[in-house]
Amino acid sequence: MIALKILDIKEMMNQLLIGTVFDSLELTEAVITTFNTFSIDGKIKRAFYDTDECALLDQSNQQYSLWKDIKPYCYSIIRGKKTPVSFKIIFQPPVSRQQEFSQKYHTPEIGGMYLNFQYRNKELICTTGLSLKTFIPDKAPEQQWDQIVIDFFRRCSIAFEML
Q: Contact 119/87 with Cβ under 8 angstroms?
């Protein structure tokens, strides 16, 4: 796990809420506090969908909504002249990317790969997390995930400093 302090919050928020760089990630949870606290559970509720839509979800093994589908709701809560009191947004790559990671780095079955953004006290911190379904003492998979996030931020010109 690493913690990264985002240096240009305004640019990061543009990338997060207007840009497309995070669109393919699944949203596991969002909690946004402005004049109220708004909470979004990203878990897909299959009962809402018809049979054909469920079949498509089953094909992709998608369990959480994609950020591109939830982003407009979060944007409508956050936008305005006043900065939110706080927010927490937790992403994970789709299962297919987690499986690719597992195969590429010879990692046991992955429980989750997380990218957590937390804004409070006028600071935006991003932390990473990797959970495995089987305990291994080797920290290499976690370090690989951390490096992927760092490289991603650099490619997307997201300014940060390590904490």
A: yes
∠ Cα 158 159 162 (to 5°): 115
Interatomic CA distance for residues 135 and 132, integer angstroms: 7
Q: What residue segments make up the domains of the chain, in order of their start?
A: 3-162
Q: Retrieve residue 21's tokens.
A: 């760089």
Specify burial of residue 162 (Cβ count, 10 A radius: 0-12, 13-18, 19+): exposed
- State the residue for tokens 């590429």: 104
pLDDT per position as a tens digit, 76-110: 999 888 899 999 999 999 988 888 888 888 887 88
Return the axis-axis angle of helices 67-78 and 9-17, rounded to nearest 10°. 130
For the chain, the residue count is 163
Give CA 138 to chain center in angstroms.
24
Q: Please tell me whether the overall predicted TM-score, pTM, comes out greater than 0.70 for this model.
A: yes
